[in-house]
Design brief:
Length: 361
């Protein structure tokens, strides 16, 4: 159960957060515990986070694309994932072919997304994943940066990902990692370090957030992600898939999702390039998020193997939501934008990796 102790210094913490210099773990906890999901304090929290993003990101919203390469039972057995090895109802393994992947990439290119992520289960053959990356990179001629979303990477694998044409790596140490998954949390952290050393920029996420997660657990994970120097951050609430062991817990409300997103935004300050909220939420776009993901192919939260016909949002719908929230839409590849922000905020480690990727796509 979450401790609902009230901290009467929350307004002071919010005022500090407005400056974009970040918060301490203790301050983040005070906001999570002390501000209800309604009332003037809640509105002040969301407004502060929104203001930080509008200023730092120049009122620019971003739409990125994700292509799920396969739908197969996975030995990592994540209890929140449709591809769990033990409880999934998935009977017919599914993989996108090369032409299908290229068609999805071409569609995203025509919709002017900021980047394209290739996502697979952890058991998807690494060489095949690299091959798909090279294929898409060649088709796009380096015009759109690629995210790699595979499993844990050894140092040589991280270098191979970079060589295959990927600029970014998405990797998250999930809430409950090692307890509701068969993944060693240390390996998740080591992959982030390996990706950095290989010249990749790493994006991460506070996920998948459920009602059973304590605020202490959430604050610990935020603190760890900042220590690991990730480049962009996201928040994601868990979808209670029918039949999953976590289904009885349900899901957090949109208001709780927005509160956690706002605290995440103030916690990181100007150390990140962007903040995503997934799945798309108008309330989170008023709480500091400026980045939405359109999805094609498979989706670990969807029983439909063509998620674009299922629960996924497409790029035009994401763009419309951002516009309704008052954001202008960035329609170029994000490398140059992120490099400019990195130099402005003096995060030269990010800047060096971005410069190498930009000059040698």
């Amino acid at each position: 159960m979450r401790n609902e102790t009230v901290d009467h210094g929350t307004r002071t913490i919010i005022e500090k957060g407005k400056r974009g210099k970040g918060l301490t773990r203790h301050e983040a906890l005070a906001l999570l515990h002390g501000i209800p999901t309604r009332g003037d304090d809640f509105k002040a929290l969301l407004a502060a986070a929104d203001g930080v993003s509008r200023r730092q990101f120049g009122n620019m919203g971003e739409v990125h694309g994700q292509i799920g390469l396969n739908g197969e039972r996975c030995s990592k057995d994540c209890q929140f994932c449709m591809f769990s090895d033990t409880w999934s109802s998935l009977d017919n393994p599914f993989r996108l072919g090369e032409e299908e992947v290229l068609a999805h990439a071409a569609a995203f290119e025509s919709q002017k997304v900021g980047s394209i992520s290739l996502m697979s289960t952890a058991d998807y053959e690494f060489d095949r994943f690299l091959s798909m990356g090279r294929l898409v990179h060649k088709r796009l001629k380096g015009r759109i940066p690629l995210f790699a979303n595979w499993g844990d990477l050894a140092p040589d694998q991280a270098r191979a990902v970079k060589k295959a044409g990927f600029t970014f790596c998405y990797h998250a140490l999930r809430l409950g990692e090692g307890a509701v998954t068969l993944i060693d949390p240390y390996k998740r952290m080591q992959t982030i370090e390996n990706a950095h050393r290989a010249g990749l920029l790493v994006g991460s996420c506070l996920e998948p957030i459920g009602p059973e997660h304590s605020y202490e657990e959430i604050a610990d994970l935020l603190d760890l992600m900042r220590t690991l120097k990730i480049s962009w951050m996201a928040t994601m609430k868990r979808i209670p898939l029918c039949g999953s062991p976590l289904e009885p817990y349900g899901q957090i409300s949109d208001e709780e999702f927005a509160r956690i997103t706002a605290v995440t935004r103030l916690f990181f300050g100007n150390t990140i390039f962007t903040l995503a909220a997934h799945e798309p939420s108008p309330l989170c776009l008023a709480a500091g998020a400026n980045f939405l993901v359109a999805e094609r192919g498979t989706n670990p939260r969807d029983t439909d193997m063509e998620t674009e016909a299922g629960r996924a949002w497409d790029a035009p719908a994401c763009r419309a939501m951002l516009k309704e929230a008052g954001y202008d839409i960035y329609t170029d590849a994000v490398n140059r934008r992120y490099l400019s922000m990195s130099l402005k905020n003096r995060y030269f480690g990010h800047a060096g990796r971005l410069m190498v990727n930009w000059l040698h796509p």
